Each structure stands twice: as structure tokens, then as C-alpha cells.
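>> received
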Amino acid sequence: MLADHRRVRDLSIQRAALAPASDGWRKYLALLGEAGDLRATVATESGGSGDPELLGMAREELVRVEVEAAQTIESVKSALVNAEDRKVGSVILEVRAGTGGDEAGLWARDLLDIYARYASKRGWSLEVLEVTPDTSVGGIRHVVANVIGEGVWSELAFEAGVHSVKRVPATEAAGRIHTSTATVAVLPEPEEVQVTINWADVDENVTTSQGPGGQNVNKVATAVRLLHRPTGIEVRMQESKSQQQNRERARRLLLARLYDLERSKVHAARTEARNTQIGTGQRSEKVRVYRYQDGIVADERLDQKFQLRDVLAGELGPLLGALVEQETTRRLESL
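>> returned
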């Protein structure tokens, strides 16, 4: 177990995702206990022979504890509605140049640099898996990277969509402002597909083998045919003279084919999700605009603006934090 570093890393990220909720709940219970003790003190000291000073202190402390308890339970709720997102500690990040020619390739490169800087600040690892450079001006036509770290999906998921930039390109001699785009897709890295099978859903027939093999092979019932009714997958195994061996091999082959089917479904779902995220790359599909002339970044989902120099330096924390807070509020309201 300890030798499986990837598994240990994943479990550590999942534990960290649940820690705020579990720690907050324990704190909330402790505060409830403290509030109960303070109420008992208030009740005791409220009599005619009570200590007025102690009563006043208990009442003040009770108010403070009740306020803190209310704030704590709200933070627990927020942690719970985001826990599943925070458990995903590895994503595939894809950046592709959109409209704008050479400038779009330069903008795709700049976006990758922003993500690399932010990953470094967050203590995440970013590994480029595939890149198609634009050799004419030094840009990037397409890049795929793997980003790993705590909270990586809960934050970077908001980057999916079209990122539009308004600036004077390095290739523009007349100094005119151009609008170019790059598309970003962010998908959770798929875990190993797990296949479980209810053998009650499998019909088994034992028959004699077919084809050449001699009198014994063709007369003794050793061939095993399995039919998985939910999927219609059928396998037949007759290579061995042992019915038990053929049954075992047939089951392994059936599991392998079911695995391949599930893997294909996951791949199709991820492809659909990716295509939905990146759209066509047109300027009208933007989720964020980077305005160099004004020095600001405007996210279409937020009312506030952000300093362009900070974002280019990889300071995505405030922007992504605002998006996480907005989504958390939406989820809480829908409960």
C-alpha cells in the first residue's frame, strides 16, 4: 500500500477534502456543549442570591459562543456541498488556440503560463503531456497537461470555456487592438474503471466442443458459453479439455469485454463533456475577457473585476475563490 504512491496521494487528497467538514462538526458539537454549560450558569446565577458579575460574564460569553456555533455550522454545510469536488485531485487541462490566427496561439501559450504559475503557488504539479507548438511566432496551437493537487478540480473546473483577450498583438504593426480567443477544457482524470458483475445475470451453457480435436473433445461436454443478458455480450471457451478451466477463462474474457465496454462509455462521456466545455471557440462563447488596455480581467459570471497584472502573474486565487463562493451559495440555496 505505501509503495503505491499514487494511491497514497489520492487518499491523502480525499482525506483533506473531508477534513473541513469533520473538524467543523466536532467544533460545532463542542460549542453546543459549551453553550449548554453557559445556559446552566445563567439559570443558576439568575436567582436573587446569584453573582451579578458572573451572570453578566456568562451571558456575554453565551452570545459569543452561539454566534460562533452558527458560523461553524454554516462552514460545515459549505464544506459538505463541496466535498465531492475537493476529493478529485487530478485533472486533465487542455488549452487550444481559437479565433485570431497567430495571436490566438500566443494567447494559448500565455494562458498555459498563467496556470503553471498558479499551480506553483498552490503547490500543485503541472505536467505537459502533449503540445502542438506554433513555430511561426512561438505560440501554442494545442496543449494537454495533467494538474495534480488538493482542490485542483474544485477550482480549475471554472476555467472551462472560451477565454477572450483584447490587446495589441506583437504581430500588429499599426498598433490596433485585436480580439483573440483560446478554449479551455478541464476534466477530472478518470480513475481505473471498476467492473463488477452479478453472475445471476449471466446464462451459462455447457456443450461439446466444436471443430477439430478428436473424438473425446467433440463428445465430452467441456465447452462453456456465457451470455451476459444486460449487455448481450456473449463469450465461448473450448480450448481446454477441462470444463472448469474453460468456465474460468470464459468468465475472465467476459469481465474483460465488460471492462472495455465501460471504458468506452467513460471515454464517450468525457469526449461529450470536453466538447461541451470548449464550444466552437467563437468570441461570443467567452467566460472571461482579459482587457490589456484597461488592465483588468472581467469574468462573465461575476460582477467584480480583477487586476490583469495579478492574473498574469498567476494570482488566480481571488477570482477562483469568488467563483467557488458563488457556486457554494447556489448549492446551499438548492438544498
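>> Residues 5-45 form the longest helix (41 residues).
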